[in-house]
Amino acid sequence: MKQYILTGGPSSGKTTLIGMLSDDFQTVPEAAELVIQEQQTKGIEIPQIQPNFQGLVYQKQKQQLEDLPYAPIAIFDRSIADGLAYCALFDKPVPDGLASEDLTNRFEEVFLIENLGFAQDNGIRYEDNDLSIKIQEQLFKTYRELGYNPIRVPAFCDLSKDDSIAQRMKIIYEQIKC
b/e per residue, 47-74, with b = 16+ CB within 10 A? Predict the structure, then answer.
């Protein structure tokens, strides 16, 4: 299975793009968002600041991989490598298991979905635009350190929302090798 990753800071449009890609490919939703929702139902208002948050995300991502039906191509809304970036940025310990994962040559391509210039409070994410940009750049740095050359997918802020999405999708489709 060829694995492609969409990564980027919060509110960059990854989930919108993944939703559109799901018409043609096997897609995997963002594990962190699922963990946040699960933890919030347990009464934890901001799970992201809990010491074990990245460990919970890592476990969810491992489960998603185990449960994933075979498809020639799978596109992920983030990968376990994102956990390394978050740990580095926020000076948190890397969860057990993640530190020993061999992430080299695992992904066909990594797409860095660039910041839209604003951050939306969707009840799950608390990051503002400045923090979103810092996260984006740490993700880029982390993937580079792992040997990847992330393809930057611009926001196309000068275009309408629909045209911006269309341009972003074009970049992604041009790189996916069927």
Answer: bbeeeebbbbbbbbbeebbeeeeeeebb
CATH of the domain at 11: 3.40.50.300
Neighbours of 172 (CB within 10 A): 20
Predicted pLDDT at 123: 65
Neighbours of 167 (CB within 10 A): 14
Q: What residues make up the domain containing 93?
A: 2-175
Could you read off the pLDDT of 24-69 as tens digits, one per residue? 999 999 999 999 999 999 998 888 888 889 999 999 999 999 999 9
**DSSP for residue 108:** S
The encoded tokens of residue 151 equal 């393809």
Q: Where are the extended beta strands (E) located within 29-168?
A: 73-77, 109-113, 151-153
The Cα 63–Cα 168 span in angstroms is 29
Contact 97, 48 (CB under 8 A): no
Total domains in the chain come to: 1
d(CA 84, CA 33): 17
Q: Are 124 and 36 in contact (CB under 8 A)?
A: yes
Instruction: Name the one residue in this structure whose structure tokens are 């208002």.
Output: 45
